[in-house]
Amino acid sequence: MRITVLGADGQLGTDVLDLLSKDLPVNGLTREDFDATDRDVFRQLRPLLENSDIVINCVAYTDVDRAEEEEALAYRLNAEFPKGLAKILGSSNKLLFHISTDYVFSGRLGRPYREDDTPDPINVYGKTKLAGERAVLSLCPRHFIFRTAGLFGKAGPSGKSGNFIDTIIKLARERALLKVVDDQLTSPTHTLDVARAIKVFIEKGVGEYGIFNVVSSGYCSWYKLANYIVQRLGIETQVVPVSSDEFPRPAARPKFSALDNSKVSKWYNMPYWQDAVEEYLRIKMLLPKGER
Question: So what's the pLDDT on residue 159?
């Protein structure tokens, strides 16, 4: 069993590579090894994947707002790249793990989304990720599509100053008051937990291919998450809930995109979001180990 992680230096890819390499034969490929934006990328990549039995695709365009302007690039990375990858792996009956998002949904359903709910994205980012999902579903029979949400990890997202938690901590230490959106609900998820789920699926040889919601249990607003972080770290700042109308963004956001993770719990129990945040803060050495 030989495993390759694509995008191994990204926020999720870093944790996936680090965790798997402790017990499994795994190779990590980054943008130094191949250029996912190149139309001929698979000429570079195909030889690098020949000896792989399992490929974990952590390559993605994740800037939700910029995607509204860079639609072609977002489609290239989120739809066309996984399509080409699925063709290669599907033709040789290899296993593909592909990462998707809660943003394939509009957030209008009023309850946490299940895997079989009909996607209806409301922004370019969500539409490109849905196109990627559909390509994998149609071209690679042996696939796991892991839908995630609100990811935070030690490496931080590529091309951004930091994940939401890091940003809130930085701003809370600089300002006496923080305004944070309270009308968008999601399931904040530690990349390390997604990596653990991938490892369990590999080690247990799960054969029920398809889509899985791999997110923390429970859900909260961005305000509730920010307030929780500030309180746990004892930072003296006031966190104030506001409407998303107060912070207009180029891309529309789902108001309630929490995901139901019951299906994945058959093999791996995702922690509640509070516990995931606690672990992250300890890893970042912002809380003493073992404190709860």
Answer: 57
Return the pLDDT at 238: 97
Respond yes or no: is residue 113 known to be catalytic: no
Between the alpha carbon of residue 162 and those of residues 35, 60, 95, 155, 172, the distances in Å are 23, 16, 31, 8, 14
Cα atoms found within 13 Å of the Cα of residue 56, Cβ hemisphere only: 31
Q: Do residues 8 and 52 lie in contact, with contact meaning Cβ atoms separated by under 8 Å?
A: no
pLDDT at 126: 98
Decide: 58 and 77 in contact? Cβ < 8 Å: no
Those residues of the chain that have pLDDT short of 70 are 158-161, 289-292
Q: What is the pLDDT of residue 1?
A: 86
Task: Output the pLDDT for position 161.
Answer: 61
* Active-site residue, selected from the candidate residues 125, 219, 223, 280: 125
Length of the chain, please? 292
Measured CA to CA in angstroms, residue 23 lies from 6, 9, 51, 104 at distances of 18, 19, 18, 33
For the chain, first and last CA: distance in Å?
Answer: 38
Check residue 216 and give left, alpha or beta (phi > 0: left; psi -120 to 50: alpha).
Answer: beta
Residue-wise pLDDT for 207-217, tens only, equals 999 999 999 99
- Residue 288 Ramachandran class (φ > 0 left, ψ -120 to 50 alpha, else beta): beta
Q: What are phi and psi of 197, to 5 degrees?
A: -65, -40
pLDDT of residue 162: 79
* 110 Cα distance to chain centroid: 22
Distance CA 5, CA 27 (A): 6
